[in-house]
Write a structure and sequence with these properties.
By secondary structure, the protein is of the alpha+beta class. Helix content is 46%, strand content 18%. The protein has 13 helices and ten strands. Strands 1-2-3-4-5-7-6 form a seven-stranded antiparallel beta sheet. It has a three-stranded antiparallel beta sheet with strand order 8-9-10. Helix 7 packs across helix 8, helix 7 crosses helix 9 and helix 10 packs antiparallel against helix 13. The radius of gyration is 21 Å and the shape is globular. The model has no long low-confidence stretch (mean pLDDT 93).
Length: 356
Amino acid sequence: MNNEKLMSKKKPSYPVNEKLHSYLNEYNRNIKIPIFYEDLLRFQGSVVVYDKNEEDTLWVRVYYSEFEREEIDLSLKKVYTILHSDGTNETIPFLNVDAIDYCTFGNSKPFRVKIRNILNDNYTYFYVKKADASRIYGLELEHMLSPYNLNFLVYKDTLIEEHIAGIPGDVFIKEELPNVTESAKSQIAKEFVKFNERCMIRLLGDMRSYNYVIVPVHDFDHVVYRIRAIDFDQQCFEGKLKVYRPQFFKENNKMVELVQAKLQKRSVDQYKVEERSIIAKRMLSAENRLEDLLTCMLNDTISLQDHIKRLKKEIYDLTNDVEFKRSTNMGDVMVAALDFVKRNYENVNMKRLMNG
């Protein structure tokens, strides 16, 4: 599959409008922070960051003038305490900004900040990005409809995201996947089917292998592997339905081959139904918050008219649901997609009750 033809060349950044800012304020995402994305762009120079194999990571480590570095370090420590604690200054003397890295690859051009506790050498990362409405919708939908909660903050045109730990999908596929047990491969195949379904349902695009991580979870007698999205830039933007299905990216071919080798069609269908049902349950449990978010999407512009026209036709051809034909923007398409899943879940439950 040619990804250049599958994906648009460049996705524009969509501003966060007043309605979305109000939503973020209502749900404690909109909090004043002491630094903006543009402040970090004032670096004096940079050096390339290489991985353990001496390969270019596409990140550069930036440095600032001595005067600015002191102010930037203090501000980033305060951001860390707001993101992970109560926002007070008590722990700031015990924090150190070990590194500030900048990535010129992709749309978001994020800064990655490494914060270390000098008392015990524990460290973590967070990201500073330009706020983009698509990405914020993606983060919120992930928070509500996936198994994972997300911690992020927005202040004016700056977005702060916590780090999502895990093994990058491309690294895992290349270095780890060939060495896991056969039973683990079956479990990973199952997880990829569910991940693929989840992305399609909530219209999260561009899940190439470097845009998700594999998280090994140690159970008492084995390791369970989970797949988590880490890039939400392509939420509800593209017009091709295939973009929202990770299976169609060539970077995921090994995972697709694993599904074909390890799972029968009946099992694949079963796991898809399971994921739809779980998402429907999450929708019902987060009903008010989800409705508020979708109201923002209905009154926002986060895609191009050509994309909207193509996507609603492709989903209509798949589902025969007339609600997609009536959609006028990406918010409408998202509402129709989630309603379709919820209606099917409720209809199945109704039939089960009627049949005793």
